[in-house]
Design brief:
single chain; alpha+beta; 4-stranded mixed sheet; 14% helix; protease inhibitor
Length: 78
């Protein structure tokens, strides 16, 4: 279930805090289920990113925990 902070004015989901701690591949599957047109981009935690806005892009910040690439911040559209 989505909280209102995770949904844009048009009723479309814009963030996925529920995937924090999941392996990257599982998180991508959850995001694509909610937003099939998403361009999911994995970014190492702490890496710099451009500040441009893309409504189809979802950046997923990941780190390695016990040899598993894991989501460390809530992914969001942008």
């Amino acid at each position: 279930m989505s909280s209102t902070g995770n949904v844009a004015g048009g009723g479309k989901k814009v963030s996925w805090p529920e995937v924090v701690g999941l392996p990257a591949g599982e998180a991508k599957a959850v995001i694509l289920k909610d937003k099939p047109d998403a361009d999911v981009i994995f970014v190492p935690f702490g890496a710099g990113v451009q500040q441009d806005l893309s409504l189809n892009r979802v950046r997923v910040f990941v780190g390695t925990i016990a040899s598993v690439v894991t989501v460390v911040l809530a992914p969001k559209v942008g």
